Amino acid sequence: MVFLPNPSTSSVDKISHNRDRKKFFDLWTRHDSNEIIFYLGLSFARRSGQHAEALLGFINARDVGSLCNYNIDYDNDTSSISELIAVRSCLALFQKNDDFDIGVNPEEVAVLKFIECEAKCKETNEEYFARGHRFAITDSDECVLFYARRKIADILGEVPSLSSLKLGFGPGASSTVKIKTTARHKLQSVPSCSGELFPHLQSVMGEVPIWQFLSKGKVNISTGILQIVPKNAKTGRPIIIEPLLNTFVQKGIGSFLKDRLAAHNVDLRNQTINREMARRGSRDGSLATIDMSSASDLIAFSVLLDLLPTCWVDFLAKYRTGVVQSEKYDFKLKLNKFSSMGNGFTFELESLIFYGIAYGVAVSLGCSTSDINVFGDDIICPSNMYDKLVEYLELLGFEVNTKKSYSSGPFRESCGGDYYCGTNIRPFYVKGRLTWARLFALMNHSCRETGVLTDEDMLHLLNLIPKSILLFGPDGYGDGHLLLDNSSVPYRPVLKRVNEDRFWFTPNRENWLIQFSGVERGWSTHSFKTWIKTPLVDKTPLPIGDDLFSAYSIYDRYGIRDDIQDIIDDYLTDRDRNHLHFLAKSDAPSRDNDPYVIRGGWKGKRIRVLHFL
After folding, report:
1. Residue with more model confidence, 517 or 245
2. Phi then psi dihedrals of residue 35, to 5 deg
3. Element (H or E) spanning 609, and its range?
4. In angstroms, rounded to a whole number, what is the distance separating the alpha carbons of residues 238 and 110?
5. Which stretches of 207-345 are DSSP H helices?
6. Exposed/middle/buried for 563, CB within 10 Å: 0-12, 13-18, 19+?
7. Residue 509, SS3?
8. For the residues of 108-127, what is the DSSP string, one character each?
9. CB-side exposure of 197: number of CA atoms within 13 Å?
10. Beta bridge partners of 18
11. CA 128, CA 338: separation in Å to the nearest integer?
12. Taking the CB of residue 244, how many other CB atoms lie within 10 A of it?
């Protein structure tokens, strides 16, 4: 429950943004943001038990560097769960917050780490070839890798044709489309591809004939562009911006791999599986959680040569980008890694590789394969095979993050779930300067999960929020409003009548009819207001992009409902049918990595929502 602000409370001083910051997604000034963060830090630190003295000293000295490097020894910690929640909530205000300067350049650290990973991949490749195209050193190594290869081949199946893939654009930038990255702008641009894709250009462009025709057959050859995005106060995250046609095909390959893994009980669309297994491991110690360091940057080319069928290595290699450059740091590299973050199938590929290795180790040791699951570089396995699995991951050139991997003791973490003796103690991480959106999310997280904010903390924060910003509502609709007990503030009642025709074109029409079947007079609802993001409409003329886009965001050659297909068949022209080759479903501006900040192409909007009882 969120406590309503007491109008008579006068002890709380207003900070400057209360007067001049009226927009929900606007960044505060650094001074105002830091004042609230350190206020909360002090509040949390006082309740952190054996950690209180150290944390209070760092906060009073404004020593953010020490806070960012502070670690908890869960195996030997005697704190209660509430004290652990408090200390982790205190650290979470600083450790991933890129708004603090701790005396290091996160971008330079990330670039150096990227280059180090390239050197490690080169070393892995050289060792592989020096051993006669094999990683195995002993017969037991060969046994584990044999089971891994067989499982990976079973998951992959036959190499798909391009026409069977769900090709399409992702939301991010490409090497030639960097700022405005909507589907219209990508279609407006001249297609670009890597040197690896160029020999196969005709088959790719054959899937998008209108784009090829309107671009007059022009194609640019492009390298990957190294870009560093924020990660935490100590380092950034290196990604490679790929050429446009590469991303177009990679997205389809990634979807195919995701489907194949799901068919073998590895669901990359559902993180809750890993979380529940981590919770179980924290309770009974039966399962271990493994986190990798720079996993995607350490997928050496030789790892694929050893583990994947040759036909699949050839297929994936056609659509990778093998050269990356950075104008800012003045270098150009031929990659020793196979793919990195930014490639549309890297996440699925690393999941496949880690699952295959874990499966091979489990079979060789006689462990249960049903207790293995992966989500990217988050691995769950039986605790009794943890050491062996780490050994084989390192044999293939990967690095295990031992500070975030747990095989004993009461703590496990995986996929955003941090569990201590079965209790989720994960805090809300403040990953940048405060906005009202970020503050609302922090307050709501306390209400839903940890209860780390005291009544005094809640009143302090509520009294800072301008009336034009402050909204309350029920849970389940995001963090555009603060949560509250339904009995505390009445909603506005609204009566709506059931009208089948009204919901005929609603995607969830069947759910509406099932939910309200038998209701004749209507149903009771309450309404509330919440903040959302809406895209700004770009009215810049895009003759080619608009011509290609007439059916681009409406129709999809996959998953069209049968009752709508007849209508589509009646009204589509031959030209419209070719538009179905374009599969992006959103024309909204992209590259909005931070949900709590407004970036270019977005605006905040307050809307009214109906809450059905």
Report:
1. 245
2. -60, -45
3. strand 602-612
4. 6
5. 209-214, 244-262, 272-284, 301-307, 310-318
6. exposed
7. helix
8. HHHHHHHHHHHHHHHHHHHH
9. 28
10. none
11. 14
12. 22
How many Å apart are CA 114 and CA 109, to the nearest integer? Answer: 9
Region of 36 (left: φ > 0; alpha: ψ -120 to 50; beta: rest) is alpha
The helix/strand count (H/E) of the chain reads as 22, 18
Q: What is the dihedral of CA 375, 381, 385, 388, to 10 degrees?
A: 0
User: 185-221 burial, b if ≥16 CB within 10 A, otherwise e?
Assistant: bbbbbebbbbebbeeebeebbebbebbbebbeeebee
Residue listed under structure tokens 């990595």: 593
Burial 471-483 (b: 16+ CB within 10 A, else e): bbbbeeebbbbbb
User: Rounded CA gap, 294 and 101, in Å?
Assistant: 23
Beta strands 192-193 and 220-221, pairing class = parallel
Q: Report d(CA 126, CA 256) in Å as an integer.
A: 31
28, 435 Cβ separation under 8 angstroms? yes
Q: Is 456 exposed, middle or buried (0-12, 13-18, 19+ CB in 10 A)?
A: exposed
What type of residue sits at position 277? M
Residue type, 245: L
Between CA 113 and CA 118, with CA 117 as vertex, the angle to 5 degrees is 120
pLDDT-derived band at 575, boundaries 50, 70, 90: very low
Distance CA 32, CA 17 (A): 7
Assigned token pair, 441: 């999310």
Tell me the HSE value of 359 on the side-chain side, using a 13 A CA sphere: 23
Question: Token pair for residue 251?
Answer: 């997205």
* Amino acid 83: pLDDT: 95
The model's pLDDT over 190-222, given as tens digits with 9 standing for 90+, comes to 888 999 999 998 888 888 777 777 777 788 898
Enumerate the β-bridge partners of residue 345: none
Give the mean model confidence (pLDDT) for residues 73-87: 93
573 C-beta neighbours (distance < 10 Å), count = 10
- Maximum Cα–Cα distance across the chain: 79
Strand, coil or helix: what is 438? helix
> What's the rounded Cα separation, in Å, for the pair 457 and 460?
5
pLDDT for residue 591: 40
CA dist 38 and 505 (Å) reads 50
Please give the C-alpha separations between residue 477 and each of 355, 416, 430, 443, 489, in angstroms, as whole numbers: 35, 20, 21, 15, 17
Q: Which helix (H) or strand (E) holds 583?
A: none
Prediction pTM value? 0.82
**What is the model's pLDDT at position 509?**
37
d(CA 447, CA 455): 11
Helix (H, G, I), strand (E, B) or coil at 388: helix
Bridge partners, residue 608, by sequence: 529
For 351-386, write each residue's pLDDT tens digit: 999 999 999 999 999 999 999 999 999 999 999 999
Whether 238 and 341 have beta carbons less than 8 Å apart is answered as yes
> Which residue shows structure tokens 């003796």?
421
Token pair in block for residue 349? 């590929």
The count of other CB atoms within 10 Å of the CB of residue 511 is 11
The strand pair at 472-473 and 236-241 is best described as unpaired
In angstroms, what CA-CA distances link 294 with 168, 191, 377, 418, 546?
27, 30, 9, 20, 40
| 486-539: pLDDT as tens digits | 434 444 444 344 444 443 333 333 333 334 444 443 445 567 888 988 876 655
